[in-house]
Design brief:
Distance between the termini: 32 Å
Order of helices and strands: EHHEHHEEEHEEEEEEEEEEEEH
Low-confidence stretches: 266-270, 273-280
Shape: globular
Number of helices: 6
CATH topology of the largest domain: Jelly Rolls
Number of strands: 17
Number of domains: 2
């Protein structure tokens, strides 16, 4: 997750100005803890710890849910992100000039094949009927801010703005997602597979489907007993492999995707089915899939702008290099 060091991000940056909050991050890095457990470890009152939790939740660093304990309900806290990268440069560097970024609404998929439980919601109402895959083809699906499916996939198109001899050296996709359980269940693992340009780049095990506390941006009309938010994750396909929040998922590299500028020549790479990559000189496909035969067939929930804990769509950045420029230099 890349964070520009600007005044707009002060709520997040301020979280690191407190020794107590940094210690909370250390503790939650080991395992989820309740407010009571954190208070005991920090030797503070639960009321003080609750204020720290609320600030860190608002900044997107923590998530919490109400769970049943031995003495009634308790608030269980978890880290929402595994890593952060702070960007200090206000002027675009050479590296930033050799990149572009796009934002894709979660409802703007171009292909799908889903199985119940499934559904779509705008920021104002449900789109069609729940658990009826036919509504994923309804023209109103482009307005979806939240969608979910128990098995199958949705596929998006990332525009290919490369020209001449430029080639991709890194693609990063940041999105808010969780697994898909009936209602919600924080302990509902799901093997979520990602494909770029027809190439399976890696599978990440999502820990659960989160609810109990309304998402920061989840609309009031949404059922409190349904999933409320996801985890903000960044998938990066780089020159040295594929990573999720900096942790390696696979050895697939950006070169393996075979993505180049439209009209360029050269040998296509092959995808995971052995066919020529569909990304050669064309838009770049992004498929998010939960297979019914996976070890953890837990489905997918996607949250976009106006839903969940992060008011954002699927954010994609593409970094590229130019072989002709390298030769001249």
């Amino acid at each position: 997750m890349n964070i520009p060091v600007t005044l707009n991000n002060m709520p997040l940056l301020e979280c690191f100005a407190s020794e107590t909050r940094v210690r909370m991050i250390e503790l939650l890095g080991e395992r989820p803890m309740s407010v009571g457990e954190l208070a005991e470890m920090l030797e503070l009152s639960s009321a003080i710890v609750t204020k720290h939790v609320q600030k860190m939740e608002s900044a997107g660093l923590l998530t919490s849910e109400s769970v049943t304990g031995t003495r009634g309900r308790r608030k269980l806290c978890s880290l929402a992100v595994d890593s952060l990268i702070l960007n200090f440069r206000s002027r675009p560097s050479e590296e930033q000039r050799s990149a572009y970024a796009v934002s894709i609404p979660v409802g703007q998929y171009v292909d799908h094949e889903v199985q119940p439980t499934c559904g779509l919601a705008s920021d104002k109402r449900l789109i069609g009927m729940m658990d009826d895959p036919r509504y994923f083809a309804d023209p109103q699906h482009v307005g979806a801010r939240h969608l979910w499916y128990g098995a199958g996939y949705v596929e998006y198109r990332i525009p290919n703005y490369l020209v001449g001899t430029q080639s991709v050296r890194e693609i990063s996709v940041t999105l808010e997602l969780g697994s898909e359980a009936p209602g919600y269940n924080a302990n509902w693992p799901s093997d979520i597979s990602f494909h770029l340009g027809g190439v399976h780049v890696g599978t990440w095990v999502c820990p659960g489907n989160f609810g109990g506390t309304r998402g920061l941006y989840t609309p009031e009309w949404w059922d409190e007993q349904s999933s409320q938010y996801g985890l903000l994750k960044t998938l990066s396909v780089r020159e040295d492999g594929t990573f999720m929040d900096g942790l390696k998922l696979s050895d697939v590299t950006a070169a393996d995707l075979g993505i180049s500028a439209p009209g360029s020549t050269g040998k296509n790479k092959t995808n995971d089915t052995g066919n020529a990559s569909a990304s050669k000189g064309r838009d770049i496909s992004l498929r998010i899939e939960s297979r019914s035969d996976a070890a953890n067939p837990g489905g997918v929930s996607l949250f976009g702008r106006g839903f969940g804990n992060y008011d954002r769509d699927i954010e994609v950045s593409v970094k590229f290099s130019d072989s002709s420029r390298e030769i001249r230099s």
